[in-house]
Amino acid sequence: MRPPVPVPTLSRRAKLVIGVVAVLLVLFTVIGTLTNVYVDYLWFDETNYTEVFWTELQTRALLFAVAGVATGGLVALAVYLAYRFRPTFRPMSLEQQNLERYRQSLEPRRKAVITAIGVVLGLFAGFTAQSSWQTWLTFRNSTDFGQTDPQFGRDISFFVFDYPFYRLVLGFGFAIVLLALIGSLLTHYVFGGVRLQTPGQKLTGAARVQLSVLLGVFVALKAVAYWLDRYSLVYSNRGDFFTGASYTDVNALLPAKNILVFVAAICAIAFFANIFFRNTVLPAAALVLLLFSSLVIGVAFPAIMQQFVVRPSADQKEQVYTERAIGSTLDAYGLSDIEYVNYAQDQTEGADADAALAALRNDTQTIPNARLLDPNVLTATFTARQQIRNVYGFPEKLDIDRYTVDGVTSDYVVAVRELNSSGLSENQGSWINRHTVYTHGNGFVAAPANQVVAGQEGGEPNFTTGDLPTRGDIEVEQAGIYYGELLNNGGTDVYSVVGGDEPREFDRPEGGSDEGQINSTYDGEGGVSIGSFFRQLTYAIYYRERNFLLSGAVNDQSKVLYVRDPLDRVEKAAPFLTVDGDPYPAVIDGRVQWLLDGYTTSDAYPYSEQQSLGEAATDALTGTGTTALPDQQFNYIRNSVKATVDAYDGTVRLYAWDEEDPVLATYMKAFPGTVEPRSEMSEELISHVRYPEDLFKLQRDVLTRYHVSDPIDFYNQNDRWQVSADPTQSGTSSDAQPPYYILAQRPDDEEASFQLTSALNAFERDNLSAFISASSDPDTYGEIQVLRLPGNTPYRGPRQVQNSFTTNNQVRPDLTLFNSENSRAVFGNLLTLPIGNAGLLYVEPLYVEGTGENAFPLLQKVLVNYADRIGYANTLSEALDQVFGAGAGEAAADSDGIDDGAAAPTEPAPTDGSAPTTAPPADTGGGAVDPAARDAAAAAIQTAIDDLAEAQRAGDFEGIGRAQAALQDAVNAYQAANGQGAAASPTG
């Protein structure tokens, strides 16, 4: 017999060092965790969403405690019992001699080892369980859908709320039993209760009883799992083209699951019986029976039925189940009440130009509002014309909204002039400047989407609201922008310390001059007060910044602003929502508000097709000024919440937009008072709501397949559609064309409405098959209309139209000219516009952008396509005249009473950053000519051109603005002296 191996011991000094290190690690961890929790609490307290904070925290703590105690406690108990009933005497064998050294090492530390096992496993289980806090809350607060599934007759709420929780509990049950079984088996083995290599009895009576009980419980849980598996058939993917229980699932697998429930129950009884009969044959036979039954009944039989019964006539066999899947998927994605219109069924590619011309002449809604300002292109233009100072900036993607000015509703390209911390110069980058001086943006900028400035600098947006201080046709009373999209710099929250008696925050330049500035002090309700030393210490630890304690800019009136991105604020205030990736600003009651759309989702809606949220909502512009949705699986979605974030004080308000959504109702039970009723929304706020882009992209993707209602046609994939790749992207990009907001008149409607639209192609073809629009009008919000085009008619899709543009004999030479060393052509959004019932009109702006550092795109040309006709001109009205004949563009030219003058110069504008050199317009004889005044104006034009070129070379945006204004005044003076008059032009 080998002598026992001595147990290694640590010196007193080593124990002291290890103890100190352990205490310090625990201390730093605890301080860091408590600081994070406290800072979170202060944020929730500031925003009045402490109900969310405490409910989530308490729920996480409850699940952590229950799962941790259950897992750690039961596994530790099983190990303890295995040790407690260890054999007193063990037969002498080589196996037992080898184990003796481990027994001697563990014996004096058995309590510590068992406790450590329980604590470690409890912590792992607790951390795992607490992440499922929403599963518990939805189970506890479940709300009925009022609909039952067609197979089991259960309310949909059972599958969405109850079933996931049952699965969660069952999973933990399996984990606990399995860990207890492993722990017990190892303990029995080490202490001689299980003897694998020792002659004679292999198990002691205590070991047999404990292991039989654990195996019996495991198999009993398996019986419960088989019972729940029956309901999981509503998520089956056995059907080739649909989700849900198929013919084989219902007629083979469902009976098999029922049988296996009883087989597993019998096997569990056999394991429990082994406690008394002391015979391993009975449980072994039961285990073999369970395995054999699961393979034959649960696997082989359904496979045989699928192969030899279903596949030979799948479209007929699966007809009922396909119909279920179509209806459930449409319900789950909010597509049950779509209006389908057979559009232009009597037309062919050689469409009736006379009918279209008549529709154009009668159109007073769509063509006048045709949008040539592309918000995805014009950021550089907004920056060049409205940035004012380097500390300001605009997001990479601008937004579209609509406003009613002087009784006329138009869509506008809008943006707020935000703080751009990445644009600060080196001497502006100190902690004081970055966090206490440059704290906010200032101003709201808007340009009618169907207007451009006329004159020498033609092709620019007509900024009807802008400048500093903000002025224009949209009244802004509070222009401070303390919360915005640019304040989440690369995922890092940009915090600011504000408040105090001394105005130290840069607010705006004084009088538009670079020489002086106006400072201000934040007096809004937002921000967390950090007047006390304790809070200053808290944030010094949180941000790892000693200036919270040392800087004189932090005083007893100071506040700290953080979590300043509107999307982040809504996600934090309402963690149960998935937020649309494109917040947009709107002026509501004189204040700038960020508007956001919140979705409630589920991955457990029966018979509904699963979607990858991030993938389905991705298009050619995702990530370019928008936030990509998380790449998670789901099969139910509702635009249930409209949220606002005040750009000045950060106030977050949530409104129940879809008050019939059971998922939202469930969360409103869990978080009472968090979401306000829809009736609390003001009329002005409702007038600015938009149908959300990400939801629309998901719905159009679903409709490419599920617009087919006949189950046999659906199974055979007849008349499938697809989203076109964005034709305006360079190279061979296959990213989907984004949907576009337009203000247009639907066929048979009397007035134009603000809507989100998209064209769909035939599957694997570039021909157009459908045109989808979702209304954003408050009276018809959410109504989706699908214009079906004749399936046998080769209507051109977006890519074919774009190809016809770029290969046109008139367009191609200009593209060669524009795409030179110093410039590049930029195609704007290719809009699809229904013209009454006469057909679809494509309109696309063409910009030219220089390659210089301060260059920005200018609108140069307009392209139009109708059937096989192409128009290419300086203005929309001229392009329409080319397609339909003289006079067709009158509606565009006269849409708002602004002279159509010169929307774009006849010659391409310079693209190297220099001023345009186009000669002044010739005398047209339109009025009295004043030669002296005309010569003076011409000299003023040249002076302004020289000043503009110098300012552009120097990157002086203030100088550029002044030179542009002087140039415009000089052009207007020249035109007046020449008997003309023009200031701005619509898209026409």
Question: Concise description?
Answer:
The chain has 988 residues and is α+β, with helices and mostly antiparallel strands. Helix content is 42%, strand content 17%.
Task: Please characterize this protein's 3D structure.
There is one protein chain. With 988 residues, the protein is α+β, with helices and mostly antiparallel strands. Among the domains are: 353-365 and 708-893, no CATH class; 377-562, no CATH class; 573-694, no CATH class; 931-986. Helices cover 42% and strands 17% of the residues. It is built from 28 helices and 37 strands. Strands 1, 27, 28, 29, 30 and 31 form a six-stranded mixed β-sheet that branches. The N and C termini lie far apart (103 Å). Mean pLDDT is 84; it is low at 895-927 and 980-988.
User: Segments where pLDDT lies below 50 for 5+ residues?
Assistant: 895-927, 980-988
- Radius of gyration, whole Å: 35 Å
Alpha-carbon distance between the termini? 103 Å
The tally of helices reads 28
Largest sheet, strands/sense/barrel: 6 strands, mixed
Which bin fits the share of residues in helices? 40-55%
Basic shape: globular
Number of strands: 37
Instruction: Tell me the structural class.
Output: alpha+beta
Mean pLDDT: 84
The proportion of residues in beta strands is 15-25%
